[in-house]
Amino acid sequence: MELLHQLLQEAGADMREAVTWIPSFGAYLQGVKRVDEFSSERICAAAGRSRLVIVGENLAIEKYFGGDLFVKGEIKAISYE
């Protein structure tokens, strides 16, 4: 975890906004302001000045609290718009 923090700092990334993708399981997102769109195949969320788009199959929002969002399902792609 120390290496991740070091890399984020070097990149000038906001430490409060991060995505952890666990293949074949789901994703944990930090810094989510709101969920704009939700279906079992697509989730769009506002995070900072960006919009995150998660595309996959059998997507479900397992937890969403205090800016943290946990999406479960078979994620095919995560992109920023």
Give a description of the structure.
With 81 residues, this protein is mainly beta. The chain has one domain: Immunoglobulin-like. Helices cover 11% and strands 64% of the residues. It is built from one helix and six strands; from the N terminus they run αββββββ. It has one helix at 2-10; strands at 18-22, 26-30, 32-38, 42-47, 50-65, 68-80. The chain starts with a helix and ends with a strand.
Summarize the structure.
The protein has 81 residues and is mainly beta.
Features:
81 residues; mainly beta; Immunoglobulin-like; 6-stranded antiparallel beta sheet; 1 helix; globular
Total beta strands: 6
Identify the strand order in the major beta sheet: 1-2-6-5-4-3
Give the terminus-to-terminus CA distance: 27 Å
* CATH architectural category: Sandwich
Reported for the largest beta sheet, the result is: 6 strands, antiparallel
Number of helices: 1
User: Which regions have little confidence, pLDDT < 50, spanning 5+ residues?
Assistant: none
Question: Number of folding domains?
Answer: 1
Helix content: 10-25%
The first-level CATH class name: Mainly Beta
CA-based shape: globular
Oligomer: single chain
The pLDDT mean sits at 90
CATH fold type: Immunoglobulin-like
Structural class: mainly beta
Radius of gyration: 12 Å
Into which percentage range does the β-strand content fall?
Answer: over 45%
The helix/strand series, from N terminus to C terminus, equals HEEEEEE
